[in-house]
Specification:
Elements: H1 2-16, H2 24-34, H3 36-56, E1 62-71, E2 77-78, E3 81-82, E4 86-95, H4 103-141
Length: about 140
């Protein structure tokens, strides 16, 4: 009778108290989901896109306005002509790039390569983390 009761309790305990089994694949998957550097990949891509858009704006015309005022405490007179004590200078400058020698093209390529390098750096860090996860999992199994 005691043996039957013990077996029933053992079976009931196994059925009711089943625990979630963590495999190596599920641990790696959870690590990828919660690793902060993976979330940075979207930010890196967005930053590269913004840099490329800013580089494209170099082809737009640039308009600048410059104004300068000066006052002299003493002025000279020349053959009876006296000059005013204050002077004003204003300028309006419009610049348009016609040819840049491929500078914008190379700058866009550089932005893309930098973003790819940052993505690869994050992947290397992720592979290091997966390697540590494999070592930890195998040491637990041992």
């Amino acid at each position: 009778m005691n043996r039957i009761l013990f077996l029933l309790l053992l079976i009931a305990g196994n059925c009711l108290g089943q625990k979630q089994v963590l495999s190596l694949d599920s641990c790696i998957q959870m690590t990828k989901q919660h690793y902060p550097l993976i979330r940075q990949n979207d930010l890196i891509s967005e930053e590269a896109l913004n840099a490329i858009n800013n580089t494209n704006k170099n082809w737009l015309p640039h308009l600048s306005f410059i104004s300068k005022a000066a006052y002299q405490s003493e002025v000279i007179s020349f053959q009876g002509i006296t000059f005013p004590h204050d002077s004003y200078i204003t300028a309006l400058d419009l610049e348009q790039s016609v040819y840049d020698g491929g500078e914008n093209k190379h700058q866009k390529q550089l932005n893309r390569l930098n973003a790819d390098g940052d993505h690869q750096k994050n992947q290397v860090e992720l592979y290091k983390l997966i390697d540590r996860m494999n070592q930890l999992y195998s040491s637990i199994l041992m």
